[in-house]
Amino acid sequence: MSENGGGASFIMGFLIGAMAGAAAALLMTPQSGEELRRTIEQKGVTLKDEAARAAEDAKIQAQRLAEDAKVQASRLSEDAKTQAQHLAEQARGQAEVVSEKGRIVISDNVRKAQQVVIDTKEKLAGEPPAIDPFA
How far apart are alpha carbons 74 and 81 in whole angstroms? Predict the structure, then answer.
């Protein structure tokens, strides 16, 4: 983008330099008053036309740059959207893995608890009943 700004600066510098040079040349050249006025008028028209062309070129260049920026912004937005979708899919996959691991751990703990209950029942069934001395 800095190259494009440099082009516009160059054009403006060129036009200002051309106007200053033309004015100096006109004032330094020996001519009659009528000739000098005609020459100044012609140079003014020429410089006006050059300035209008430069302004039109700058406008076209600005429009082109704006369109390029719009396309690039759209592309970046689409890339960000795709990346966000990809990350969301990865997160869903990770959540499913964690959920499944949680189910396995809970299932194992339930089995262990059930086994403890069974073992305790068997142990209690094999022991003589406790006598309550206060009964």
Answer: 11
Tell me whether residue 105 is exposed, middle or buried, using C-beta atoms within 10 angstroms of its C-beta: 0 to 12, 13 to 18, 19 or more: exposed
pTM, to two decimals: 0.46
For residues 91-104, one letter each, b for 16 or more C-beta atoms within 10 angstroms of the residue's C-beta and e for the rest, the string is eeeeeeeeeeeeee
Task: Please report which confidence band the pLDDT of residue 2 belongs to, taking 50, 70 and 90 as the band edges.
Answer: very low
| Tokens linked to 37 | 């006025």
In whole angstroms, give the CA distance from residue 10 to residue 83: 42
- Provide the 8-state DSSP code for 129: P
Higher pLDDT, 58 or 3: 58
Domain edges within the chain = 2-90
The answer for residues whose C-beta is within 8 angstroms of residue 15's C-beta and 6 or more apart is: 47, 50, 51, 54
Higher pLDDT, 16 or 72: 72
Asked whether 31 and 39 are in contact (CB, 8 A), the reply is yes
d(CA 25, CA 31): 11
